[in-house]
Amino acid sequence: MAVHHNRGQNRDLEINPVFSREPVRVPRYALPRGEMEPDTAYQVVHDELMLDGNARQNLATFVSTWAEPEARRLMDECAEKNMIDKDEYPQTAELEARCVHMLAGLWHAENPRQAIGCSTTGSSEAAMLGGLALKRRWQHRRRAENKPTDRPNIVMGINVQICWEKFADYFEVEPRYVPMDGDRYHLTPDKAVELCDENTIGVVAVLGSTFDGSYEPVADIAAALDDLQARTGLDVPVHVDGASGAMIAPFLDPDLEWDFRLPRVASINTSGHKYGLVMPGVGWALWRDKDALPDDLVFHVNYLGGDMPTFALNFSRPGAQVVAQYYNFLRLGFEGYRRVQQTARDVATRLAREIARLGPFELITDGSDIPVFAFRVREGIDHFSVFDVSAALRERGWLVPAYTFPKNRTDLAVLRVVVRNGFSHDLADLLLEDLRRVLPRLDKQGEPHRDEDDAGGFAHGAETKNPRRHGRH
């Protein structure tokens, strides 16, 4: 939704001569009356986009900002292919299916070749599909038992990405948030079980919290729900939001049980355009078996004379990102992904250590789960804030978000660094140099100059939830 408040809407664009042409005037917010030369239109758009930040210096976003030239070339070649048209672009559909099978194997599905899954526009759509399947599965069970289906709820930590609040709002499910408390910044088994009842459609466990980069204890949550079923008969499935971690843990933490090895995990989502290493936007949603994805949610289309099931909120979208995902899987293989992800973790953990050694900062996490870490200004330092640090770094082009934690820990304000493929040790050193450069200036302040209101809107998943919006929880 684009809303502009007195931002020069009465001034047209005045364009300097391009290639000796006369200057022209172009309306900002209305369709021009006539045409212009393509290179002139290009220059107008190009010049305005120079005001954007440098994507490679954006340490707020989890989204990939670098790709190999060959991947970009394939994306250019497939930009016009509509992913929804399985019959017209059967080989693109085939590559999508191969990616699903590869992910199913990576996540220890019992029979990867029979796995149920699909590509999406990103992990948010994939998460919503996972939530919809949980709701529909719960409704079927309740109706079979002649019980009401009008009060579904879903249990999750308050640290979940904002898409889960949207899911609850859009699809009329009560979100039951487990608040943060003390040094507990994400969902724990005991707190999850406390909020479950006969109306709980599922528990969301996050493998890589956007607030601090930490893994939630999926196996322990599943075990607690196993115990709950043994005691009460309540059978509550788990959906793993692996937007980031589902493309980190299989390569760097192979012994960590969080995926389909756990019978209670019904579905998993991930983001191909995060640590899947694809440019925006592609995500993936997978279910452990056909029982986990009710068939009445699936639409069936003819595909090469056979049946192609589809499940999506989105419709038309380019096939380019799916093709790029398959290229990355083919190009890197398991060992290549392991090497790329290990490098990102090495950069994150080293950068976190170096920042901690500067003196004014204290680590909340150190980048040893997903390659993301958060840090705060030490207690006793009251003459500058994390928001001052973020603004100072922005002067050199670095986008490092500063934000406060949610309810019960709103006293905790942090900076967060997301290390992605392409953010090298050399770039980390440059960030450290700039951080060292701004600290003497900040030390001269008598008091903080900036607060949460100056933070901007780039927390990328660490937004505050509104539990009251949906009911008593």
UniProtKB/TrEMBL annotation:
GO terms for biological process: L-glutamate catabolic process. The keyword Transport does not apply. The keyword Lyase applies. It comes from the Bacteria. Residues 443-473 are annotated as: Disordered. Its cofactor is pyridoxal 5'-phosphate. Residues 443-452 have a biased composition (Basic and acidic residues). Pfam families: Pyridoxal_deC (PF00282). One of its GO terms (molecular function) is aromatic-L-amino-acid decarboxylase activity. Keywords: Decarboxylase, Lyase, Pyridoxal phosphate. GO terms for cellular component: cytosol. It catalyses: L-glutamate + H(+) = 4-aminobutanoate + CO2. The modification N6-(pyridoxal phosphate)lysine is found at K274. Its EC number is 4.1.1.15. PANTHER family: GLUTAMATE DECARBOXYLASE. Belongs to the group II decarboxylase family. This is Glutamate decarboxylase.
